[in-house]
Design brief:
The protein has 156 residues and is α+β, with helices and mostly antiparallel strands. The protein has a domain of 77 residues: Beta Barrel (OB fold (Dihydrolipoamide Acetyltransferase, E2P)). It is built from three helices and five strands. It has a five-stranded antiparallel β-sheet with strand order 3-2-1-4-5. Helix 1 packs antiparallel against helix 2.
Length: 156
């Protein structure tokens, strides 16, 4: 007869999955609220900075990524020239004069992001991962006739 699994480890799994799920939900809500408080505008690419790519293999085999330098006029009339967030990796040099939609907060227009919602993927992934494993771990925890359960072994 195998040794029954302890309830403590099962509860730890449920707590961990709940934490991952809640972190994803809070992160997603934070990003949505931040986006709702921001202003969307169109910026013009005026150049780019070159840097080493974050990927091990590089951008499609290349060793460099490009961060576009953009210019736009904020809602308060301030002219802003800044580098688009490095989280949006461009694998080929952007064309000067090309336009891109950007999001900025009114209190910090130089801190911009593109509108591709790339920052939301971690939150969505955490919700899916945590929710999936939380659902199955709670089901596993509640299953009354599992032969490895201590309660089941005692009734036999």
């Amino acid at each position: 007869m195998s040794k029954p699994r302890g309830r403590v480890s099962e509860i730890v799994i449920v707590v961990f999955c709940s934490g991952v799920f809640l972190a994803g939900v809070v992160g997603l809500i934070w990003q949505i609220v931040d986006y709702a408080r921001s202003t969307v505008t169109v910026a013009t690419i005026t150049g780019y900075e070159t840097r080493e790519s974050h990927d091990r293999g590089g951008c499609s085999g290349g060793d460099f990524a490009y961060d576009p330098i953009v210019e736009f006029t904020a809602a308060n009339g301030t002219h802003v020239r800044t580098v688009l967030a490095p989280s949006s990796e461009w694998c080929s040099p952007p064309k000067t004069g090309e336009t891109v939609s950007v999001v900025y907060r009114d209190d910090a227009p130089a801190q911009i992001q593109d509108t591709k919602f790339g920052d939301l993927w971690w939150a969505i992934g955490a919700i899916l991962f945590g929710g999936f494993f939380l659902f199955f771990s709670i089901g596993w925890l509640r299953h009354p006739d599992d032969p490895e359960r201590e309660e089941y072994a005692e009734t036999q």
